[in-house]
Design goal:
The complex is a heterodimer of chains A (about 350) and B (about 240). Chain A is α/β, with parallel strands linked by helices and about 350 residues long. Chain A has two domains: about 250 residues, Rossmann fold; about 70 residues, 2-Layer Sandwich (Alpha-Beta Plaits). A six-stranded mixed β-sheet of chain A has the order 6-7-8-3-9-10, with helices on both faces. In chain A, strand 7, helix 6 and strand 8 form a beta-alpha-beta unit. In chain A, helix 3 packs across helix 4. Chain B has one domain. Classes of the chains: A alpha/beta (about 350), B mainly alpha (about 240).
């Protein structure tokens, strides 16, 4: 099948902190290189945001980049949308190299940035009309498309008002409508549902699916499990600038050993005890988590608890906390990184 | 995009200072005899140069600073299917037009305030038009270079450290020849592009007064225009792509 987006060993190293649009969230952000190496002063401030990304998005897919804040999602989108210069490697959108053939690539894409970037001195309708004009759409066609999009996004009654006074959710809807104005082959949505109320989020998902049914490709970034699971047909899980797993949501979930994860906490957890857990029926893998915890991957959940408690009691250890999670992408992330997506 | 109230404020902001300057120095000070009447005509080109340079620089630099760092509204235009340099050029052209309008509005204003005794002699209209264009380009290209170099938190500094010295050492309130008694200063002000702008307008608007040689002015202004445009575009590309 034809690929809409392709990247080859894409790397991005920032010499100074990346702009917030390229998404460096919190402390779990991109890793700084080891400064103890015999590296020059300059490299001390270097931050590796993307560390050799290979992506292939088939045309007509809804593709999700799932990862925590600062994983490199926005940097990847930045490069694919010509706004960030790759340090090395290459990326193509619709067959055009995004760095060498920017103008052709920009014709193919629509972009919704993570932070609102609407022109505050324009009305919602004007924003759509102006955007259409940048792409050379005729005046009549522009008004027709703008009217249809405003209606679809339930913005018609506010279309003539300045976006300055809009709520965050309304601004986000205008941003997405604007990105769809020139009917791009590939639509990039960077964290599209952040800050939306559940009702608007559902509307947005519906619109994304509709757009996809027209044969368009959509790449969205998210750290929302539900969004990744229900909306995306294909996922790549990204952490510290690397892709740690990819596949369809069901493939990914099936790849977790056992499916269920029991996160256990004890007063103390001797290694021998953890070994004993491995022998319990249904348990596929046991991992130590810190000094006093263990993550047990198993094909059953609650029914395993009595056996765990009994086994632990045999070692004179008391179970102090337990959290059971069902097969999910969250567990997949935990399995690959040892961290929860929300941590 | 400008709307009614904003345009009015912009107009006021552009013309208030030159207007007051023309009134006090051109009308009051010459009226009470502290300055000779001829100063009216000498002052006008300088005021025009200040208005044009201020307007053009402000019109390009301020939106750039705000759009890159605050509203981010430039992002959508950077995604238009053209080379991103055209987005910068569009800003420069808009600033250039505003500078031209500002410059041309000073003449009727001065006419109202300074009459009688104001002696304007535009002997060569195409040359005057060309000079206006060069001065307006200088202001807009300078705005691009400044706007893409200065951070939001340094706007105040930019105006006090760049604009103010430029105006006072820019042969705006006095002709270059009057610096003859200060030979070192007279040489130093020649690195100030505004000096050529003021002298250029003086040479084409009130040629009866001494001024720098026209070829020198034309070469210097063209040089600064190209230099600032090239520098500005380079800075713009750096800012637009991370």
């Amino acid at each position: 099948m034809e690929s809409a987006i392709r990247t080859n060993n894409l790397r991005k190293v920032y010499n100074s902190p990346p702009p917030s649009a390229a998404g460096r969230g919190d402390g779990s952000g991109p890793k700084a290189p080891n400064v103890n190496d015999k590296q020059s002063k300059e490299s001390k401030s270097q931050i590796t945001a993307l560390d050799g990304i290979n992506l292939e998005v088939v045309a007509g897919q809804i593709f999700g980049l799932l990862g925590p804040n600062g994983a490199g999602k926005s940097t990847a989108v930045g490069i694919l949308t010509t706004r960030v210069r790759p340090t090395s490697g290459a990326a193509w959108v619709g067959g055009h190299n995004v760095w060498q053939d920017q103008t052709a690539a920009k014709r193919k894409i629509g972009v919704v940035a993570q932070r609102p970037n609407l022109d505050f001195s324009l009305t919602a309708r004007e924003i759509l009309l102006f955007h259409g004009a940048y792409f050379g759409i005729s005046s009549r066609e522009r008004s027709d498309r703008a009217a249809a999009l405003l209606d679809r996004f339930k913005l018609t009654d506010r279309a003539g008002q300045l976006v300055r006074g809009f709520s965050g959710g309304m601004m986000q809807r205008v941003s997405i409508a604007r990105a769809m104005m020139h009917d791009p082959q590939v639509l990039f949505l960077d964290e599209p549902s952040v800050g939306l109320d559940p009702q608007t989020r559902l509307l947005l998902w519906e619109i994304i699916r509709e757009y996809n049914q027209k044969g368009r490709t959509i790449l969205l970034t998210t750290h929302n499990m539900e969004e990744a699971d229900t909306l995306c047909q294909h996922l790549a899980i990204i952490d510290h600038g690397r892709i740690i797993a990819s596949g369809t949501p069901s493939e990914l979930k099936a790849s977790i050993p056992g499916g269920f994860v029991l996160r256990l906490r004890f007063a103390h957890a001797p290694g021998e005890l953890l070994q004993r857990f491995t022998a319990l029926s249904g348990v596929t893998e046991v991992r130590a988590s810190g000094e006093t915890g263990a993550d047990v991957y198993s094909d059953r959940g609650g029914s395993l608890i009595p056996e765990i408690v009994t086994t632990a009691a045999g070692f004179g250890v008391e179970l102090s906390d337990v959290h059971i999670s069902e097969p999910s992408l969250e567990n997949l992330f935990l399995h690959h990184t040892g961290r929860s997506l929300r941590e | 995009m400008l709307r009614g109230a904003t345009s009015f404020l912009l107009l006021l902001q552009t013309f208030l200072q030159p207007l007051l300057f023309v009134f006090i120095f051109g009308r009051v000070m010459t009226g009470n005899g502290l300055l000779p009447a001829a100063y009216k005509s000498l002052l006008l080109p300088g005021i025009m140069a200040i208005s044009m340079v201020f307007t053009g620089m402000w019109a390009v630099a301020m939106p750039l600073i705000a759009e890159f760092q605050f509203t981010r509204e430039i992002e959508d235009r950077l995604l238009a299917p053209i080379d991103i340099s055209w987005v910068a050029i569009e800003k420069v052209v808009a600033g250039l037009i505003q500078a031209l309008v500002a410059g041309l509005t000073v003449i009727p204003l001065a006419w109202i305030i300074l009459r009688p005794g104001l002696e304007i002699h535009i002997n060569n209209l195409p040359l005057f038009a060309g000079m206006l264009f060069l001065v307006a380009s200088f202001s807009a290209c300078g705005g691009l270079a400044l706007g893409c170099t200065v951070d939001q938190q340094h706007i105040g500094l930019m105006f006090s450290m760049v604009m103010t010295p430029m105006i006072f050492f820019g042969c705006t309130y006095y002709p270059w020849s009057s610096l003859a008694k200060f030979p070192i200063l007279q040489k130093i002000v020649l690195i100030n592009p505004l000096a050529y702008a003021s002298e250029g307008l003086r040479a084409t608007l009130v040629p009866q007064f001494p001024h720098l040689s026209l070829p020198l002015i034309l070469v210097a202004l063209s040089f600064f225009d190209v230099l600032l445009l090239v520098l500005g575009l380079r800075q713009f590309r750096k800012k637009a792509v991370s």
